C-alpha cells in the first residue's frame, strides 16, 4: 500500500489482518514473483491525498477476498484513490467496496495499457529533426514547470511529482534552438512506464512526438525495463504512434476514486463490458512474443487492421 506522505508524517503499520510489510531480505523473492505479472498490476504515483496500489495476478482475482477483512491497513470510511489499474482488479475492488461500505467507483477514467512487444519495429526509420530549428536533449529540473503545464492531468499529478521524477528518472525534450523553449517531452515513470508524449500545439505535426517516443523507449529497454504506456481509448493519434514503434495493447485499465456511503440506489460502475478480462492470464500479455507484423505504410498515424493483430 502506498500513501502519499513522507515517513515523518505517517505511522508505519507493520502488520494488518492479512497483509504485512515485506522485510528487506524478502524483497528478491517477492520481485521475482511480481515480475511475472508486471505491468498487469500498476503501482500508482504518490499523491498528496491517500492512494493505494493493488498487485494481483489478473487470473487469480479471488485472492483479493483477503482485502475484505483488512481493517487495519485500509480506511474503508474514507475515499480511496487508485491510479490506472487492470479493470479486473478495479471490478473486484468495487464489489468489495460496495459490500463493506455501500461504496462505488467515482470519476473513473479508462486507459488502455500498451506494452512494447515487437523489438524489430522500434528501428523504424524516421526523418531527422531539423538541426537548425530544434534539438533533442535530456530533461532537467529547470524544465519541470513547462512539463507540468503541458501535462493534460496536471490537476491530478502535482508539480512536486514531476520534480521527483526528473531528478531520478530519464526523459527527453525537444527544444527550440532560438530560445530554448520546450516544444515536446517524454519521461519515464515508475517501472517501465512512460508518460505519454506531450507537444505544445504550435509545434505539432512536425514529427517530434515519434522521435521522443522512439528515443525514450530504447533508453527504457537499455535500463532493463519493459516499456509500457497508458493511452486513452479515444486517442487515435497516440495509439497509432506507439503501434508503429512496436507497442501492442495488453489490457484495459481504470483510474478513479472509491467513495464510501454512496446513494442507496446507486448502480455499479459500468465495467461489465470488460468483465471478461478478469480471466486474463499473465501469458496473454507476455513480452516474450515475437512480432511478425510489417509496419504498414500510409497509415497517417492510425493503426491499420493488420497492425492491430496479435504478434
Explain briefly what this protein structure is.
This protein has 311 residues and is an alpha+beta fold.
Annotated CATH topology of the largest domain? Aminopeptidase
Spatial order of strands in the largest sheet: 1-9-2-8-6
Q: Give the H and E element order.
A: HEHEEHHEEEEHEHE
Based on CA atoms alone, the radius of gyration comes out at: 20 Å
Q: Count the strands?
A: 9
Number of domains: 2
Give the helix/strand class: alpha+beta
Low-confidence stretches: 1-10, 40-50, 272-311
Main sheet attributes: strand count, strand direction, barrel closure: 5 strands, mixed
- Shape call: elongated
Structure report:
The chain has helices at 27-34, 87-101, 144-150, 159-168, 208-222, 236-244, and strands at residues 80-86, 104-116, 134-138, 171-176, 182-187, 193-194, 198-199, 228-231, 247-259. It is α+β, with helices and mostly antiparallel strands and 311 residues long. It folds into two domains: 24-116 and 251-259, no CATH class; 119-246, Gcn5-related N-acetyltransferase (GNAT) (Aminopeptidase), CATH 3.40.630. The chain has a five-stranded mixed β-sheet with strand order 1-9-2-8-6. A hairpin with a 5-residue loop joins β4 and β5 (182-187). The chain has six helices and nine strands; from the N terminus they run αβαββααββββαβαβ. The chain is elongated.
Task: Fill in the keyword field for this structure.
311 residues, alpha+beta, Aminopeptidase, four-stranded antiparallel β-sheet, elongated, disordered N terminus, N-acetyltransferase domain-containing protein, Acyl-CoA_N-acyltransferase
Amino acid at each position: 500500500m502506498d500513501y502519499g506522505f513522507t515517513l515523518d508524517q505517517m505511522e508505519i503499520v507493520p502488520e494488518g489482518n492479512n497483509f504485512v510489510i515485506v522485510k528487506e531480505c524478502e524483497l528478491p523473492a517477492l520481485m521475482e514473483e511480481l515480475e511475472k505479472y508486471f505491468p498487469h498490476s500498476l503501482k500508482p504515483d504518490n499523491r498528496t491525498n491517500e492512494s493505494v496500489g493493488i498487485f494481483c495476478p489478473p487470473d487469480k482475482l479471488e485472492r483479493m477476498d483477503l482485502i475484505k477483512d483488512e481493517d487495519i491497513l485500509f480506511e474503508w470510511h474514507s475515499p480511496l484513490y487508485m491510479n490506472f489499474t487492470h479493470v479486473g482488479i478495479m471490478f473486484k475492488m468495487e464489489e468489495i467496496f460496495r459490500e463493506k461500505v455501500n461504496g462505488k467507483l467515482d470519476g473513473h477514467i479508462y486507459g488502455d495499457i500498451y506494452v512494447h512487444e515487437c523489438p524489430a519495429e522500434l528501428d523504424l526509420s524516421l526523418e531527422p529533426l531539423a538541426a537548425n530549428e530544434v534539438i533533442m536533449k535530456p530533461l532537467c529540473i529547470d524544465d519541470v514547470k513547462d512539463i507540468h503545464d503541458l501535462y493534460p492531468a496536471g490537476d491530478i499529478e502535482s508539480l512536486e511529482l514531476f520534480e521527483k521524477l526528473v531528478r531520478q528518472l530519464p526523459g527527453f525534450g525537444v527544444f527550440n534552438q532560438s530560445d530554448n523553449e520546450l516544444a515536446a517531452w517524454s519521461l519515464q515513470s515508475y517501472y517501465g512506464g512512460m508518460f505519454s508524449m506531450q507537444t505544445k500545439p504550435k509545434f505539432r505535426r512536425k514529427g517530434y512526438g515519434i522521435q521522443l517516443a522512439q528515443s525514450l523507449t530504447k533508453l527504457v529497454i537499455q535500463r532493463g525495463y519493459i516499456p509500457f504506456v497508458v493511452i486513452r481509448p479515444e486517442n487515435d493519434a497516440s495509439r497509432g504512434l506507439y503501434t508503429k514503434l512496436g507497442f501492442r495493447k495488453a489490457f484495459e485499465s481504470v483510474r478513479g476514486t472509491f467513495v464510501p456511503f454512496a446513494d442507496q440506489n446507486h448502480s455499479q460502475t459500468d465495467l461489465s463490458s470488460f468483465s471478461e478480462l478478469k480471466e486474463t492470464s499473465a501469458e496473454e500479455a507476455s513480452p516474450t512474443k515475437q512480432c511478425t507484423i510489417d509496419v504498414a505504410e500510409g497509415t497517417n498515424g492510425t493503426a491499420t487492421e493488420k497492425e492491430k493483430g496479435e504478434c
